[in-house]
Amino acid sequence: MEIYCRGNRVIPETFRNAMSRRNMFGVGVLIGTALLAETASASDGDASANEAIIRRWYAAWLKKDMDWGPFDAMLADDFTFSSTDGNDHISKVAFKKNCWDTQIAFVKGFDLEAVMVKGDEAFVKYLCHTMNGKSFRNVEYLRLRNQKIEEIQCYFGGTLTYPSAVSSRKS
Fold first, then answer.
1. How remote is the C-alpha of 71 from its chain's centroid?
2. The domain spanning residue 147 has which CATH number?
């Protein structure tokens, strides 16, 4: 059995048999990293444009004029939002009503701690600051299409980490 890699390079049978599982894992990580780097470099323009859109999304939460327009403009018409609170691919209209309307007044800002973009997908880890000086961390997966956010999946610890819950909690 032969193992084929990108560009039809072959890892010989004798080399594979001589390697421990740990070493094979290490080689797999190196090969995977090289392939990801090659793929990422091929679409650097798309990734850069998508990162700019993502950064604008989080920056828009800083404006306190309560205008939904800038948010709506960044979201695809068929945008969906999912979270660990039971939101399962809710629509843009439901996101506005259930999430944005209820939380915008409590968000003071975000420290984007990690923004990892590969093509049309991204993971963002942030520290969110609330209006009363408290903070919490979330991780979000975003998928983009045609320079619009098509999907956000938010991973947090539950309703106690909503900005409004954090803001109302006693120290």
1. 17
2. 3.10.450.50
